[in-house]
Structure formats: structure tokens, C-alpha cells
Design brief:
rod-shaped, single chain, mainly alpha
Length: 98
């Protein structure tokens, strides 16, 4: 990960640490933010949510890439263009919930 983008576990620690601090659990927040509380439920939940969001974003990016590909829209292939049969299937799949 770059210096600008935290790793998933770092982002989860930050989110969990903020939650704990906001709820008045300053000691636990300090443990989590120091990287010593990765077994805390708050960290595991945050990591799971961030992973789910990343997978959703990847699926949406792949769908956009398919639609952005000029060949997707090319009708010169004896009407075999994916655009002719897709009818939004890629977009619906990308936007589908789990």
C-alpha cells in the first residue's frame, strides 16, 4: 500500500479506534490504534466491511471497464456485439447486493 492509502487492517484499526473512542472506551481505542487489538470484534467487523466494500468497488469497476471498451459496442461482427444481447446485465450484476 502507498503511504497515502492505508492497508485494510490499518483502515479497520482507525475505524474501530474511532468507534471505541467515541463510545468512551479510550483505553481500548489506544490498544486498537497501536495495532495490539486486531482480535477485537470492532476491528474484525470493520475489516470485514472494508473487504465487502472493496469487492463491490472492484465489481463495479469491471462493469464500467466492459462498457468503456469500444469493442463492446462494435456492431461490425455480424451482430455478435455483446451490447446487442447484454441489455444491462453487466450493470445489474455489478450493482447486485450480496
Amino acid at each position: 500500500m502507498s503511504a497515502m492509502t492505508p492497508s485494510p487492517i490499518e483502515a479497520a484499526r482507525r475505524a474501530a479506534g474511532k468507534l471505541l473512542r467515541d463510545r468512551g472506551y479510550d483505553r481500548e481505542a489506544a490498544i486498537v490504534l497501536a495495532g495490539e487489538g486486531d482480535d477485537f470484534a470492532e476491528v474484525r467487523i470493520a475489516l470485514n466491511l472494508l473487504d465487502t466494500e472493496a469487492r463491490d468497488r472492484q465489481r463495479q469497476t469491471q462493469a464500467l471497464a466492459a462498457y468503456a471498451d469500444a469493442d463492446f459496442w462494435d456492431e461490425a461482427g455480424a451482430d455478435l456485439s455483446p451490447a446487442l444481447t447484454d441489455r444491462g446485465a453487466i450493470a445489474r450484476a455489478a450493482l447486485a447486493t450480496h
